[in-house]
User: Fold this.
Amino acid sequence: MNHGDYVSSQRRKAAATAGKVLASELDIIEGSRLLSSLRSEVDVPDGDPDFETFVSIDSETDSLPVGEVRGSWSQSALDSLEPQLGKARSWAVAIAEEALRNVVSRLSV
Assistant:
């Protein structure tokens, strides 16, 4: 696989991830973390406003357990964090919706 093919595959992955978040098939925080990690792989300029949104969400929620890591946490700890997770998800959805749509539009092939 050459570099262009790799970038194209990562762009499709980013667009699919954003689409899953928009369809409520993937948690907004988990999706933002994945999109943040793909930022340098999809050939967008530094400071791209859509990807900066995901970096911000990742940074602000990095202490919260989402995705597979939840399996390593006790149920009582997860229960105690649920109000904080709910607030974080609401905040993230509010700031990410446009960026998610933009990523789907810009990076879908």
The mean pLDDT is 96.
